[in-house]
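Let's study a protein:

===
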Amino acid sequence: MVKRYEARRRAVFHAFSLAGKLIYHTATESVTTDTVIDAFDHFVAQKDPDTFAVVVLDNASMHRSKAFRRKILEWMSHRVHLVYLSAYSPELNLIEILWRQMKYAWLPLSAYLSFDNLCDEVHRLLDGYGTECAINFK
């Protein structure tokens, strides 16, 4: 039996600290500059205002857009500093390690039975990060 699912997507934007705290935001619409700005605003609202944060970004067009660049000073006033990776170097982004671990070690095969199962399992893992599952970067 072949199952077909309508093409749906869920974008997950997340930030995590080396100490194990994870903040994430999901969106079901296409990823645009506005979506990324909303995710950053969500992150800034969730982070401890006394904590200085360094956010590592790839060079996606939405991270370099005029609208995104206009927000950088605002985020810096909340102690969020952005650092761009060198082009074509995702191995330098620690969040890629988290995604690899989720995809190949933590997600059960049953997650892939449907889009809803996959979303539920990804949320379960993200909600449990730091208690049920974690990566030790030390």
Residues 33-46 form the longest helix (14 residues). The beta strands are 11-16, 22-27, 53-57, 80-84. The chain has five helices and four strands. The helical segments are 33-46, 61-64, 66-76, 94-106, 115-127.
